[in-house]
Specification:
GO terms for molecular function: FAD binding; oxidoreductase activity. It is built from 14 helices and 19 strands. The protein is of the alpha/beta class and 418 residues long. β14 and β15 form a beta hairpin. The two termini are 28 Å apart. It binds flavin-adenine dinucleotide. The site of flavin-adenine dinucleotide (FAD) has 34 residues, from α1, β3, β17 and α10.
Length: 418
C-alpha cells in the first residue's frame, strides 16, 4: 500500500508562498496546494534586490538560469557594488561617504519578472485562485481550512505566507492569548508604522543623462532623516527609485485605520520632500511623473512561528523595513525537511529555532540601518564611526550561509528526534 501523500497547504501566492511551492513540488511524497485570495498572481511594478545568500538558494532550486535572464545582469560572483553611499542633502554636488562592495554585489530585478520566474517553475495543478482563507482549526493532526466563499479544505501542514497583514498570524496569537491569558501576545498581531514614508517610481534609462551614477551602480543618497535608493533593473533598461522620509519619533505607532498604506501622490510632493538636494537626485525625482506613496510598516519581532500544524513564513512571520533589501530574501531562506511527515513537530521546531532568531535579527537591524543612512542613529553624521557601523550591519550576508544554517537545522532536528 502506498502511503498517502503529506498535504501542505500554502496560504498566499507572493514571493514566499511561490518559492516554497516550487521547492516542495519537487518532493514526490508531498502534495502542495497554494490558496491565493486574488484571482491571479500579482506583483507591483517596482524593483527588488537580493544578495548572494538568496542567489545561492535560487541556484540550488535549479532556478539560476531563469533568474539570470531577468536580472540587471547575469550574476557571476565577481565583486561588485552593494551600494555607493553619498551625502546628498545639499544643493551643491554631494560626496561619497562609503563604497560597499561584496561578491555578487546587489542583484536586482523587476518584481513582476521575479514572481513570474517562480510561477513558470510551478506545476500547473497546485494553485487555487479566489480562495481567501478566513480561519482554520486543528484536530488530531489535521488542519481544516475555511475560505471566504464557505468552501473548505484539509491538510497536514498549513503554511501562512499571507503577507504582512496575515490572518493566520492573527489567529495563532489570539489562540495563544486565549490559552495563556497573556495580553502581550496580542501585540504581535498588527504591524506597526516605522514612522517612514516611501515614494516609488521607475524611470526608462534613456531619459536620464548617460553618465548618471544610478545607471551603473546601486546608489544610496543620504541626508538628514531621509534617503533615496536607486538601481537599474531589467537588463539595465530601467532605473528603480525608492525614497524614504522618516519621523523617527513615530516608530511603533499604529497608522490611522482609515488611511490606506499605499496611495498615489503628485510629483510636486516628491520634489518638495527632497528640495535642495544635490542635482543628481533632482534629476532622478523630476523624471518620476506619478510616484506611489507607501507607509512602511514592520512587525514586532515574533516570539514563535509555529502552532501545531500551522507555521508562518515570509512577511507573515517577519515583515521588516526594506533598508537592507532583505524581506523577500529572508522569505526565500526557509528550509523544511524533505519528508516532514516523518516527524512534523520536530521539523517545525528546528525551522523555528534556526530561522526565527536570524530573521528577527535582520528585522531589527533593517530598521537600524535606515536610521544610520539618515544620520539619525547614535553615530549621527560622524563618518569615522558611522561608516564602520554601516558596514557591520551587512555582515550577516556573508558571515553565515543558508547551507550552514540548513546543516544546523538538520542537527537540531536530529537532536530533538533522538
Ligand atoms: C518599499 C519596499 C521595498 C522593498 N524592497 C525589497 C528588496 O529590495 N528586497 C527584498 O528582499 N525585499 C524587499 N521588500 C520586502 C518584500 O517586498 C517582502 O518581504 C516580500 O514581498 C514578502 O513576500 P510574501 O510572499 O511574504 O508576502 P506578500 O507579497 O504580501 O504576499 C502575500 C500573498 O498572500 C495573499 N493573501 C493575503 N491574505 C490571504 C488570505 N487570507 N488567503 C489567501 N491569500 C491571502 C495576498 O494576496 C498575496 O498574494 C520591500 C518592501 C517594501 C515595502
Amino acid at each position: 500500500m502506498l502511503k498517502p501523500k503529506f498535504k501542505v497547504a500554502i496560504c498566499g501566492g507572493g514571493i514566499s508562498g511561490l518559492c516554497l511551492a516550487v521547492a516542495l513540488s519537487r518532493c514526490p511524497n508531498i502534495q502542495v496546494d497554494v490558496y491565493e485570495a486574488a484571482d491571479r498572481f500579482k506583483e507591483i511594478g517596482a524593483g527588488v534586490m537580493i544578495w548572494s545568500r538568496t542567489w545561492k538558494i535560487l541556484e540550488q532550486l535549479g532556478l539560476g538560469p531563469a533568474f539570470s535572464k531577468i536580472a540587471h545582469a547575469p550574476p557571476d560572483g565577481s565583486v561588485a557594488t552593494g551600494f555607493d553611499f553619498r551625502r546628498s542633502d545639499q544643493p551643491q554636488e554631494g560626496f561619497r561617504v562609503h563604497l560597499m562592495q561584496m561578491p555578487y554585489g546587489c542583484i536586482r530585478f523587476y518584481r513582476v519578472d521575479f514572481l513570474d520566474a517562480f510561477v513558470h517553475a510551478l506545476p500547473s495543478n497546485v494553485t487555487h485562485f479566489g480562495m481567501r482563507l478566513v480561519s482554520y482549526s486543528q484536530h488530531a493532526g489535521t488542519v481544516s481550512l475555511k475560505f471566504l466563499d464557505d468552501t473548505t479544505a484539509t491538510c497536514d501542514l498549513l503554511v501562512g505566507c499571507d503577507g504582512i497583514k496575515s490572518c493566520i498570524r492573527a489567529q495563532i496569537f489570539k489562540e495563544a492569548f486565549d490559552r495563556s491569558g497573556d495580553s502581550e501576545l496580542l501585540k504581535f498581531i498588527d504591524p506597526v508604522w516605522t514612522g517612514t514614508t516611501a515614494y516609488r517610481g521607475l524611470i526608462p534609462v534613456e531619459s536620464l543623462p548617460p553618465l548618471h551614477r544610478s545607471i551603473a551602480d546601486p546608489m544610496m543618497y543620504c541626508g538628514k532623516s531621509k534617503h533615496v535608493v536607486s538601481y537599474s533593473i531589467s537588463q539595465g533598461s530601467v532605473v528603480n527609485v525608492v525614497t524614504f522620509a522618516s519621523e523617527p519619533e513615530k516608530e511603533g505607532i499604529f497608522f490611522d485605520e482609515d488611511k490606506a498604506w499605499v496611495t498615489q501622490c503628485t510629483q510636486q510632493e516628491l520634489l518638495d520632500c527632497y528640495a535642495h538636494w544635490e542635482p543628481e537626485v533632482e534629476q532622478l525625482l523630476s523624471r518620476i511623473e506619478k510616484p506611489s506613496k507607501w507607509a512602511i510598516h514592520h512587525l514586532k519581532p515574533l516570539p514563535f512561528y509555529v502552532d501545531g500544524g500551522v507555521v508562518l513564513l515570509g512577511d507573515a512571520a517577519h515583515a521588516m523595513a526594506p533598508h537592507q533589501g532583505a524581506g523577500a530574501g529572508q522569505a526565500i531562506e526557509f528550509r523544511l525537511r524533505r519528508r516532514p511527515s516523518d516527524n512534523l513537530p520536530h521539523a517545525l521546531e528546528a525551522y523555528q529555532r534556526i530561522r526565527l532568531p536570524f530573521a528577527n535579527h535582520v528585522l531589527k537591524e533593517s530598521y537600524i540601518s535606515g536610521s544610520m543612512y539618515e544620520f539619525d542613529s547614535e553615530f549621527g553624521d560622524d563618518y569615522e564611526t558611522l561608516v564602520p557601523a554601516i558596514a557591520s550591519q551587512w555582515h550577516w550576508v556573508e558571515d553565515t550561509s543558508p547551507e550552514s544554517e540548513r546543516l544546523r537545522a538538520l542537527g537540531c532536528f536530529r537532536e530533538l528526534a533522538s
